[in-house]
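seq as requested:
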Amino acid sequence: MSYKKIFWGVILISIGILIMLKNLDLIWFSWHSLWALWPVMLILWGVSVLPVKDYIKLIISLVAVAGGIAVVSTQPNINTFGFVWHRHNHEWNVDYKNSSDFKSDENYSEPFDKNTKTATLDFDAAAGKFMLEDSTSNLYNFDKSGGDVHYETSVEKDSTSALVKLRLRDSSVTNGKGTEAHIKLNSTPIWDVKLSVGAADMHMDLSKFKVRTVNFDGGASSIYLKLGEFNEDQKVKINAGASEIKLYVPKTRACEVRTNTVLSSRQLDGFNRIERHLYRTSNFNAAKIKTYIDVEAAVSNLKVETY
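struct tokens:
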């Protein structure tokens, strides 16, 4: 039996098993972490055309795969696979410090004006871990620790609205490894959230806020987004690279999901397939208030659930 039939057959079976176990929530791992091993595929391709016997090709290939995993996994700040075995659908594998334990080296805030009815958070960030879930009596709070990046903020106001801008102080700095930031928002105004990040772990529990729009533009990311009840239409737009994307919407919300994904898996619980790339909840047509979700991603795992 030829090397190609044996080796590539094993590779395809292994990938299929991993995807199946991941979709069943029996294991967790990040696709963008696996992407770090892409050069190994070039090595395997080269091995396949070597003029040597098949058993020698197989040995060389196994050594190459093992060596690639060993090299990547020994690099600082890289978790190659990050496998986590679990059965709980809502478990998230990002280790954030509790607010009581979190010590920031940068913090910004703005007092809340009771006349503010709408607000926008415009956040341009480097790589790192970012949590947005807690409320504050201020308009916003931003606390950051670690990393070699620094942020600056500005707030633009008129009589009823506010625009909060968070930017890297030095736009030439893009390495945010080791950065962790906690963002808090006031729960009174209606919010529009704009996020532009690098390779990030983004945990956003927005269920307690009145969120009108969410626009996420990022690289290889882990994205957790939980939406809450709101008496207006909601629009969510996600554009990401190789990412792990988990979205949660209330069961009472009528929701539509459009996907444009390449080499990606998707799991949409509580949704009906309308046509290719289009899914809706059963109450969508009859509802007056709706949530629209649009996802564009490559080599990703997308999961959308109702809760």
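The CA atoms of residues 219 and 241 lie 5 Å apart.
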